[in-house]
Amino acid sequence: MTIILTNDDGIDAPGIKALMQAIDNEGIIVAPHVQHSGCGHRVTTSRPLQLQCRSPQEYVVDGTHADCTRIALTQVAEDVAWVFSGINAGGNLGIDVYMSGTVAAVREAAIHGVPGIAISHWIKKPLVIDWDRATRWTANVIEKLCNHPLPANSFWNVNLPHLTPDAAEPDIVFCQQSIDPLKVGYRVEQDLYYYQGEYAQRPRSPNTDVDVCFSGNIAVTQITL
Description:
alpha/beta; 5 helices; 24% helix; globular; two-stranded antiparallel ribbon
């Protein structure tokens, strides 16, 4: 049984290397050659895709994260057990799942009947991600979710908290996905509109993934197609 790893940050991002370490280097990476963050479930159908083999465990695609999942399931591997996406450098909480490439990669897997886990790490500025700690947390949550019932046509969305080095270890909390919108604002200069959004200021409805993650725990939501 094969495990496919992908992301939307690009094949050379530290998050996908941490994800590979979390599963003891037992997966096959099929990832985009450049970053495609925030472009949702975009796929490429108007031009050919190039697939390059870097090693028996590492393939790069000149397409999106969803393209990578499609290529992985149909051209790279057979008998795929799971598709894991991440570890994304930045949260994918609540309604972010509609914009997130990290989430779209496993949504594409679920469309084809393959279970998946999308894993993201919220960034609480000015803290910097500790990838060793993220790897440890990810290994724990993957072990738990791979042994937890998952209905057909569903996948897991996981968000790791951003904690100070001396903080206690987080709990894994199953919770509901927030549907509260992130406040949208723009700074206007003549005819130019600069997006301004404070991620940490988004609404925190109790017991939702936003609230759980911002409170210092690992938020796990089950998402159904």
